[in-house]
Amino acid sequence: MSQTMPLLKIEDLQVDFATHQGEVSAIDGVSFELEEGEILGVVGESGCGKSVTAEAILQLLDEDSTFYDGKIMFNGENLLEYDKKKMEKLRGNDIAMIFQDPMSSLNPVMSIGKQIAESIRIHQSATKKDAYKKAIELLKLTGIPSPDQRAKEYPHELSGGMRQRVMIAIALSCQPKLLIADEPTTALDVTIQAQILDLITSFQKQLNMGIILITHDFGVIANMCTKVAVMYLGQVIEETDVRTLFKRPFHPYTIGLMKSVPQIEGERVEHLHSIDGTVPSLFQIPKGCRFAPRCKYASSTCENKMPSLEIVEKNHRVRCWHYDEVKKGELIYAD
């Protein structure tokens, strides 16, 4: 691949849903890039469009009620121009996804070994015997004990951590170029979370995969990711490398999210910071800046005119009318 061509380049992505109340826009003008070997963290509250963006890349959304616009360039080709057959060949092979809840993603009436082998047979044209043998090898690589025995078991017989390892084995069975991990550790305890994330990182280094990691955990972002896209109500509102985001965030929403994370060092506060209000409904999207109703710095401009995603420093983009005041230190997001 040419060095000038990113592995994935999303340009002005629009995702609209047809509902019984009319058409709504779930994703509005999302753009970002991902190079080979990079890990992009996508962060934001529930309802901000993180998962919809991920599912749009693989076109997993209901085709009868979903409408796309923009470009999803993968290896130089626009996935939105792919037909159904071409997309089926791509899914699980070149681009794989680890879903948030393995119990809703795994087939409850098919053994673990057969589920992993099925993906290998479909995409790698392997025999049943060879595919099953590779499935057991993958279970072993993901750290599941007694892989021969586990391969014969069903999802309900495994723990949550083991089921997530199975999902990783399925996702990595064809050595994809891009892995999308949608909150892969949400339902797991802290110790198992660390093991799963270490496992994903280990495979990422071996295969030089690009990874999109969807999470709400800034600790995970800090430890794993190369760069970060912060989303709010269907838009990217800040994007930069991890070091810059933690050192100098410019958007009030990003600052608010980071201040709400408990701090180990420094003075203990009685109450954690919180951002007032909730993410609005897609049927009640504000006219101007989408964060304006919850932002203590909102002006009349913010309320009436939508800001664009501007480059404010090298590799740092922000969607805010007041980023310059934040940059100069004139706006301090304090309680």
- Give the rounded overall mean pLDDT: 89
| CATH homologous superfamily identity of the largest domain | P-loop containing nucleotide triphosphate hydrolases
Structural class, by secondary structure, is: alpha/beta
Return the CATH topology of the largest domain.
Rossmann fold
Beta-strand percentage? 15-25%
Helix content, binned percent: 25-40%
Count of helical segments? 13
The CATH top-level class label of the largest domain: Alpha Beta
Biggest beta sheet attributes: 8 strands, mixed
H/E element order:
EEEHEEHEHHHHHEHEHEEHHHEEH
Count of discrete domains: 2
> How are the strands of the biggest sheet laid out side by side?
6-7-8-3-9-10-12-11
CATH architecture of the largest domain: 3-Layer(aba) Sandwich
The termini sit apart by: 48 Å
Q: What does the radius of gyration come to?
A: 21 Å
Parts with pLDDT < 50 across at least 5 consecutive residues? none
**Mass-distribution shape:** globular
Number of DSSP E strands: 12
Describe this structure in words.
By secondary structure, this protein is an alpha/beta fold. It has 2 domains: 8-94 and 176-328, Rossmann fold (3-Layer(aba) Sandwich), CATH 3.40.50.300; 106-174, no CATH class. 34% of the residues lie in helices and 23% in strands. The chain contains 13 helices and 12 strands. It has helices at 50-57, 84-90, 102-105, 112-124, 128-141, 147-150, 160-172, 190-207, 218-224, 242-247, 252-259, 300-304, 323-328, and strands spanning 8-19, 22-34, 39-43, 66-74, 77-78, 95-98, 178-182, 210-215, 227-232, 235-241, 310-313, 316-318. The strands form 2 sheets. The chain has an 8-stranded mixed sheet with strand order 6-7-8-3-9-10-12-11, with helices on both faces. A 4-stranded antiparallel sheet has the order 2-1-4-5, covered by helices on one side. A hairpin with a 2-residue loop joins strand 9 (227-232) and strand 10. Helix 5 crosses helix 7 and helix 7 (160-172) runs parallel beside helix 8. The model has no long low-confidence stretch (mean pLDDT 89).
